[in-house]
Design a protein that fits this description.
The protein is of the alpha/beta class. Helix content is about 35%, strand content about 10%. The model has no long low-confidence stretch (mean pLDDT about 95).
């Protein structure tokens, strides 16, 4: 059984990771509201153990509104309004999967529990300031997570939406990536979804590929 334990022990002992934590703690001490709360920073890994990962969906950084961020990319807790990008994700699912019903909530926890790693490339943000922690060093950690998944897991689908997520392609290609599937499309944001995210068929292709590998498909309904 492969868990995140050894990986996290190594990363969290590294100077770069300790420096990130020092910077985030200093922001909180200075009175900044930082999302998500500390116990949810690594929620993507907590909810999706390493040896269960079948799909990786990369987001950019956490939502920066009150109550939105809970450590899973594109997801919000129950009771929080569905963000625009997630509405477009639901729209793509509704258009491509006949049995999909658009949910009235935006919590994707059920995806994570089936092996979908919902990982943001930056794991913290200051309230009302998108991308405010982009230069703290979180990408070093995210690159390491992606490389660990690509190195240790036999068959993984990487959904890379938008140019930011696609910068992580080399972490996959640096491994023997022939047993993985990389799917690229524009970001589901309202600014770019019409350029090719809507109609990309990624969720259909993912399940077809998993089935061919003899693996259980993802139930995308939440």
């Amino acid at each position: 059984m492969q868990t995140w334990s050894a990986f996290l022990t190594t990363q969290q002992a590294s100077p770069y990771y300790q420096d990130i934590q020092t910077q985030v703690a200093a922001k909180r001490l200075a009175g900044e509201v930082v999302y998500p709360p500390p116990e949810l920073e690594l929620n993507a890994l907590s909810q999706c153990p390493l040896d269960t990962v079948k799909v990786v969906i990369l987001g950019q950084d956490p939502y920066h509104g009150p109550g939105q961020a809970h450590g899973l990319s594109f997801s919000v807790p129950p009771g929080i309004a569905i963000p625009p990008s997630l509405r477009n994700i639901y729209k793509e699912l509704d258009n491509s999967l006949p049995d999909f019903n658009i949910p009235e909530h935006g919590c994707l926890l059920e995806w994570a529990q089936q092996g979908v790693l919902l990982l943001n490339t930056v794991l913290t943000v200051t309230e009302s300031k998108a991308h405010s922690h982009a230069k703290l060093g979180w990408q070093t950690f995210t690159h390491a997570v992606i490389a660990e998944v690509a190195r240790t897991q036999p068959h993984v689908i990487f959904m890379l939406w938008g140019s930011h997520a696609q910068k992580f392609t080399h972490d996959i290609l640096n491994t023997d990536c022939q047993h993985h599937l990389i799917l690229k499309a524009p970001h589901p944001s309202p600014l770019s979804a019409h350029r090719g995210f809507l109609g990309c068929q990624h969720f259909v292709m993912a399940n077809e590929w998993l089935a061919k590998k003899g693996l259980a498909v993802i139930d995308w309904q939440v």
